[in-house]
Write a structure and sequence with these properties.
This protein is an alpha/beta fold and 159 residues long. The protein has a single domain, classed as HAD superfamily/HAD-like (Rossmann fold). Helix content is 38%, strand content 21%. The strands form three sheets. A five-stranded parallel beta sheet has the order 3-2-1-6-7, sandwiched between helices. The radius of gyration is 16 Å and the shape is globular.
Length: 159
């Protein structure tokens, strides 16, 4: 990966952004300020996520909400109360598919349920995560600028 590439980072909302909104507001601002993209990749629904991101002052490039993207899919059942049920396999594959289709360079999520479907580097959010096959640990206890620096080193300089 070349240093001048526009990095695309996927962030889950529930369990990641929602856990430390102030940190991820700084993280997103720093990434966007460096010319990178932030894709909020979540269960949804998009309207609620968009409102919550606005309330939390978190900027982003795009939102992908599984509930909205798959609402017309045959693997989705709509209950009488309007709730959707999406087949577990479809749900678990959706984020990985989005990342592949949109050239996401790194996805940060709090669940291990999705990782087996990913070809995109995947970081399980916590105090730190090791980037798959990269040998770099992201320490989310450090300032957002330092975490972005670590992502750059892992993805730009350790191929």
């Amino acid at each position: 990966m070349k240093k001048d590439k526009q990095l695309k980072i996927g962030l889950d909302f529930h369990g990641v952004i929602s856990t430390r909104p102030r940190f991820f507001a700084d993280f997103s601002a720093e990434a966007l300020g460096r010319g990178y993209e932030i894709h909020v990749i979540t269960g949804g629904p998009e309207t609620l996520i968009r409102d919550e991101l606005k309330r939390l002052s978190i900027d982003y490039t795009a939102i992908f909400a599984i509930m909205d993207a798959y609402k017309d899919c045959p693997a989705v059942a709509t209950y009488r109360d309007g709730e959707l049920h999406i087949d577990d396999k479809v749900w678990n594959m959706a984020k990985a598919e989005y990342c592949r289709n949109h050239g996401i360079d790194l996805h940060i999520d709090d669940s291990n349920a999705y990782v087996k479907w990913f070809t995109t580097p995947y970081c399980r959010y916590g105090n730190g995560c090791c980037l798959t096959n990269k040998g770099y640990v992201l320490d989310f206890n450090k300032p957002a600028t330092m975490v972005i620096d670590s992502i750059e080193k892992a993805l730009f300089f350790n191929e």
